[in-house]
Amino acid sequence: MVDLRQANEMKKTTIEIPDPLFLKAKIRAARDGLSMRNLFLRALQTALETPSLAPQKRRVDFPLIRASRQAPRLTFDQVAAVLNSDEGLL
Questions:
Q1: What average pLDDT does range 12-29 have in this prediction?
Q2: Each residue of 39-83: pLDDT tens digit?
Q3: Which sequence spans correspond to the domains of the chain?
Q4: What is the DSSP letter of 21?
Q5: What is the full DSSP assignment across 31-80?
Q6: Pair 28, 40: CB distance under 8 Å
Q7: Cα(47)–Cα(50) distance, rounded to whole angstroms?
Q8: Is 22 helix (H, G, I), strand (E, B) or coil?
Q9: What is the DSSP letter of 23?
């Protein structure tokens, strides 16, 4: 957790907030005896400490498809020859 009292460097930003949400935030800040700035800093800190609701991306192992037998070893020249031929691999 970042100690907001010890943060020496701050960045300024501008965000657009729907009027009803801003009014709720202003009421909450007043009720809790906070400035709007501190309310937003606390809310942002809490949001960043809470685990994300987005699905976690699953890591995959390569190769994705396992061959049933060992693939032949090809040289660069052999691969280039197949790619440059009109017949392809067949």
A1: 95
A2: 999 999 999 998 887 787 888 888 777 777 887 888 999 888 888
A3: 19-49
A4: H
A5: HHT--HHHHHHHHHHHHHHSPP-SPPPPP-PSPSS--SSPPPP--HHHHH
A6: no
A7: 5
A8: helix
A9: H
